[in-house]
Design brief:
Layout (H helix, E strand, L loop, with lengths): L5 E6 L5 H11 L3 E6 L3 H7 L11 H8 L4 E4 L2 H7 L2 E4 L19 H13 L4 E5 L7 H10 L7 E5 L9 H6 L4 E5 L3 H14 L8 E5 H32 L3 H9 L20 H14 L3 H28 L8 E5 L14 H11 L3 E5 L4 H7 L8 E3 L3 H5 L4 E4 L11 H7 L5 E4 L6 H7 L2 E4 L9
Parallel strand pairs: 1-2, 1-4, 2-3, 4-5, 5-6, 7-8, 9-10, 9-12, 10-11, 12-13, 13-14
Helix pairs in contact: 1-3, 4-5, 5-6, 9-11, 9-12, 11-12, 12-13
This protein binds nicotinamide-adenine-dinucleotide (NAD) and uridine-5'-diphosphate-glucuronic acid.
The site of nicotinamide-adenine-dinucleotide has 26 residues, from helix 5.
């Protein structure tokens, strides 16, 4: 009996490719799973215990399968030739140049990948879009893939990934749903069934849903747009709460208890971040514009506008509260990752907050339990002496006029704020961009406390 029944490959070993393939390998021991990447350093890191992506529980899964049926390599052509099913999970950032700059996705990595697949293949293959792509990308890819003169057929499926960073392993092991989009042709349906069988190793059948390719691509963009819309909705209400002394937590609870609305993703914040929400909404906006749907485009674009507004508003509150000047003041930022339990800082609201404070000539001290390496790279262009990095939150706040909580790391809930207060300049300020602290207790210690969407508690 051959050692493996099926050979799977994932091109792109990042936040999605690595964890997804580790879980597939763990759940499908008879599949040989290989992950390749153009970034040799990343591939090398996947072979160590210092993985290139931090996710709770990921190392345990990787250790269980690495060398058994999960392999990492930089030999992309050899891996393509061997594989029957190729997942493509390369990055698809927003275009920064030319037509559609600032909105359209940059598809150069994805197209390069398609061309590499054609060149290296000697037999038919199933190509699975895992990256988030604009609707009808599969069509373009098929044209590139199937314009080969080797007589090889490629069947393209759309299988968007819905995992969230920080909970990737849990999301992959127990997904709300798995979506497989295929052409409704005999070849499309046969390919779809191959992928469905892989997921059926651990995902209940009723949670594996199928659709046409375009619906699958659009469902991914629309899901992210709906999720981000909820955050922008509650964040917009937070601005009104601050004017009226309503409390956004009370409003959010009252709204969320309506079972038609539901209580998740209604947590107010300094703004949403991450590599996907903004990019995918802008992608949707660009798509609508291309189809002449101006009103629809403006509707979704406003979700991004409110997010920018929320971040700006947070910094304005800080400056106004601190007597309209932060020049020369030391301000500690607790948290730089875009959410807890990840080292990822892409589009983190902390980045905008830090940059604005630096512009105002503050001395910013960035603290984070996991994200300082990324934070250093993100702020490498800051003027010398304007930004410092300190993992220990107690050292970060020492001598500071203010601290701002920007990531909801659990550890920030239980710090000794009395000791911190004693080591800070007075009057001491706390700006809680995640509303995770006990504001009344902080006020009692002597802090001036500024939550989001709740009345400030001031001693003056
Ligand atoms: P990432 O940047 O972490 O990883 C992408 C990897 O692809 C990188 O390691 C890069 O070196 C590699 N790559 C780029 N071009 C390549 C090529 N031609 N050949 C081989 N490797 C190549 O990105 P990510 O966060 O994993 O996102 C990947 C895709 O998944 C994006 O389209 C994203 O929108 C989508 N997605 C991301 C998340 C998330 O939470 N991060 C969730 C769902 C979907
Ligand atoms: C998001 C989606 O949740 C995933 O389903 C999707 O697969 C992924 O995007 C993607 O396509 O990349 P992710 O960005 O990893 O996942 O993290 P989220 O948990 O969605 O958080 C995004 C941002 O929104 C964070 O900055 C978070 O702090 C913020 N947020 C989230 C809020 O401000 N309030 C909330 O109630 C929830």
């Amino acid at each position: 009996m051959p050692q493996f029944d099926k050979r799977l490959l994932c091109i792109g070993g990042g936040h999605v490719g690595g964890p997804t393939m580790a879980v597939i390998a763990a759940r499908c021991p008879r599949c040989e799973v290989t992950v390749v990447d153009v970034n040799a350093e990343r591939i090398q890191a996947w072979k160590t215990d210092n993985l290139p992506v931090y996710e709770p529980g990921l190392l345990e899964v990787v250790k269980q399968v690495r060398g058994r049926n999960l392999f990492f390599s930089t030999d992309i052509p050899a891996a393509i030739d061997k594989a029957e099913v190729i997942f493509v999970s390369v990055n698809t950032p927003t275009k920064t140049f030319g037509e559609g700059a600032g909105k359209a996705p940059d598809l150069q990595y994805w197209e390069k990948t398609a061309r590499t697949i054609v060149e290296a293949s000697r037999g038919n293959k199933i190509v699975v879009e895992k990256s988030t792509l604009p609707v009808r990308t599969a069509h373009a890819m098929e044209r590139i893939l199937n314009s080969n003169n080797k007589g090889i057929h490629f069947e393209v499926l759309s299988n968007p990934e819905f995992l969230s960073e920080g909970t990737a392993i849990r999301d992959l092991q127990s997904p709300d749903r798995v979506l497989v989009g295929s052409h409704q042709t005999p070849a499309g349906i046969a390919a779809r069934d191959v992928l469905v069988e892989i997921y059926a190793h651990w995902v209940p059948r009723e949670r594996i849903i199928t659709s046409n390719v375009w619906s699958a691509e659009l469902s991914k963009l629309a899901s992210n747009a709906f999720l981000a819309q909820r955050i922008s909705s509650i964040n917009s209400i937070s601005a009104l709460c601050e004017k009226t002394t309503a409390d956004v937590a009370e409003v959010s609870r009252a709204i969320g208890m309506d079972t038609r609305i539901g209580n998740r993703f209604l947590e107010v914040s300094v703004g949403f971040g991450g590599s996907c929400f903004k990019k995918d909404i802008l992608n949707l906006v660009y798509l609508c514009e291309n189809y002449g749907l101006e009103e629809v485009a403006r509707y979704w674009e406003s979700v991004v506008f409110i997010n920018e507004y929320q971040k700006r508003r947070f910094v304005q509150t800080m400056i106004r509260a601190m007597f309209d000047t932060v020049a020369g003041k030391r301000i500690a930022l607790l948290g730089f990752a875009f959410k807890k339990d990840t080292a990822d800082t892409r589009e983190s609201p902390a980045l905008m907050v830090a940059r604005r404070l630096i512009e105002e000539r503050a001395v910013v001290v960035v603290s984070d339990p996991r994200a300082l390496t990324n934070a250093r790279a993100d702020l490498s262009d800051a003027p010398v002496g304007r930004v410092l990095f300190e993992e220990d939150p107690y050292l970060a706040v020492r001598g500071a006029h203010a601290l701002a909580v920007l990531t909801e790391w659990d550890l920030y809930r239980s710090l000794d704020y009395r000791a911190m207060f004693d080591s800070m300049e007075k009057p001491a300020f706390i700006f809680d961009g995640r509303n995770i602290l006990d504001h009344q207790a902080l006020y009692a210690i002597g802090f001036n406390v500024f939550p989001v969407g709740k009345p400030a508690r001031k001693h003056f």
